[in-house]
User: Fold this.
Amino acid sequence: MNTSLSLNINNSLSGWRIVFVGQVQGVGFRPFIYNLIKKLGLRGQIYNCGADAVLELLASEKVINDLIDDIKNKLPQLARIDDLTQSPLTVTDIESLLKNTQNEQFSIVGSSDEVNPSLNVAPDTAPCSDCLNELFDKYNRRFLYPFINCTQCGPRFTIINQLPYDRPNTSMHEFEQCGTCLHEYNDPSSRRFHAQPNACEQCGPQLWNVIKNADFNFIEKSEKNAIEIAVEAIKQGAIIAMRSVGGFHLVCDAKNAEVVKKLRARKRRPTKPLAVMVANSASANEWVKITRSADELLNSPQAPIVVTDVDTDKKFDNSEWLQELSPGLSRLGVMLPQSPLHWLLFYYYQNSPESSHWMREYCSLALVMTSANRSGEPLITDNDEALEKLSDIADVFLLHNRDIVTRCDDSVFSAWTDREIPIRLGRGYSPYKFSLMNQDDGLSADSLFSNNRSILALGSYLKNAVAVNKGNDICVSQHVGDLDHPDNCNQLDSTVQHLLDLMKVKPHAIACDLHPEGYGRQLAERLSREYEIPLIEVPHHVAHIYSGVAENNLTTDYFGVALDGFGLGWDKKPRGGELLLIQNNKEHNDLFLPVGQISPIAMLGGDKSSKEPWRLALSLVHHLVQNNIDLKTDLYSQFPHLLTLQSENPILIEMLNKHINCPQTTSLGRWFDAIAGLLGICDFQTYEGEAAMRLEALASQCLTPASDGSSFEHAIKAKLDYKIDIQRFLYKKDSIIELNLYEVIIELVSEYKKTQSVEQFALGFHIYTAKLIAGWIEFAGKQYANVVDVILSGGCIQNRLLTEALMMELKQKNYHPILPKKIPVNDGGVAVGQILYGMKHLASECLNTKN
Assistant:
């Protein structure tokens, strides 16, 4: 044994291996460690292994412990350590380390070939402030280069083919770095030290235009001023198809109502809201009210679309723009530039300003920025596909040659005054990885999953995102899309395969929605057969509740309220207004207990009623007037269009009388549709949730904050300040407590005769419903005195007015309402609930077998 080796083994100096688990690749973690340890003068190396980072170091145990504390306290902005293991190096390991570090004290070495399953993949992020400063610095060699990035920003998930995150494993492998870029890549003092997408104008991806000429043919323009050509086209009223980070965007001037109409017509998207990109928060103020949560989201590295309240108090008139962008609604989605390319659109629009101050100052340009696809189809990522499928939508194409490996729609969050509600996970957040808290519930799955066993969950039967776990770690995919289109079904296939391949996970069970139809179910059954593993069917609303609890450490019993549009319940019936009890007591093996439901409403014509709210209005009225002549007179006199609908559709009335193709559903979402149909504000829905969103917007008109500056929440609270005799609206049906909303309509019709205000009717339905749901929970809680936590989940929880009112009422009754943090409250989070339910299901089976 040589002397140096003997010293390391026999003295206090020894060798240690530290494995960092978390978001430690693609975030500048290894360069950060390198510079930290070089200052300490220690000998060792760091390398990627799977999705982890492994540090091997010669130092005393005290130095190692102090170093770990230092690392945790000084992490790069995008890095995250979820776990670490620390173990001594063997004599053989130390010999190998000394050999590898003969020439340098400390170094970053090549990745290990060891297969190490991990759910940690870095998402894409918007440009950091350093890169933006360089982008607009005319003395910098990357001046105006649209693909500038560093270890703290840029593309990640969308360009990765496989882990570890090294350049050869990304779509950047086609671009060989020039000498200058390679020097930066190898320079520990550079911000681009080991930045895998590193590139410049000389060696990196390039832009070009394809333009439609007067004969409606496309001609290629490979000019250096491709972005300037696109901006000039936007000024002239053209529609641009632009290849972005996770796919193509369709872009046009948001302040040009005619071109927005043209975009809607070409894309066949008549009324669904369109998001607007502005340069900064100062510019966003022209459109919407920027709350604290909205401002933080807009300026975050993830740069999502933020849905927030339209500012109706502005002195100038933006109503024409808003009517085209967000018809009939009181909220608008806004976003800030998500890539250097997007920033350059604003730069050239402002005629290439000399100073960088413009990035923080008001800019009049506002761009519609919407996914480039035909309605219902997947987001387009490929240049050739875009030229083929968007030829009759776009006038000008702005293309580049950095391939998009994984399509990723923009993430969407709803910003309320003091919280944010996740709507869709995509670019910037996906894949989203988090860890389940340890649950002392007697059904803990730790024994089954501590050795990295996994469940693949395929999400809802229609709206879809998937998830997979490794032990207590769960990873949620990007939004996939609606599975009623074959291309989205293919996208589900590729998303599942890429997720499993990327993370080197082999599932031990498949979880899916209870619905027997749909492509997700077919895929679940096929994968179950191929892998020869169990298939776990999860009731839709139970998955919603479990999804809501996944991010919270609930060790006691809790109520779950699932409010949405449609899903099959545990009894195979259409549901969507459920009150469940989850008992974590060791004596209970039941995974859920149904406690209550909302009164059913008939879906006249089956699923067709979900697209035609007037059918639900007819069902509602038909039920109400059967034994109430006075109410019948009031309804038809106050809402004469119902009489017209009834006389024009005698067959439908016959269907109601004979209960033909009129399945009953407890869905609160269908109740909202029925009220929208009753008030005549939305007879036909062109997108999911349109009727309910229009109803909420109508109701919100009665809640305009007072001139004294009181908030939206205070306005809601004032409307809640009255008592309801909850007993009038509840009755027991077997062991289930049913909440009767028909009585609410009778009350509201009576009030409407006096006010003749559809706005007050809409508000009354929201307020009544919130108060009644809270009273419903309180009534049920009398049987379960120790239950105080209430999980709120399902698509209806996205309704800010309803949810804010419900939470106020619950808090007043000393309940603790819980909303999700990053998991979508809609069907985008169902897969997470399926995994947690699957874990408990398998653990329960294991306990039953033992007993």
User: Anything to note?
Assistant: Residues 758-781 form the longest helix (24 residues). Confidence is low (pLDDT under 50) at residues 1-12, 439-448.
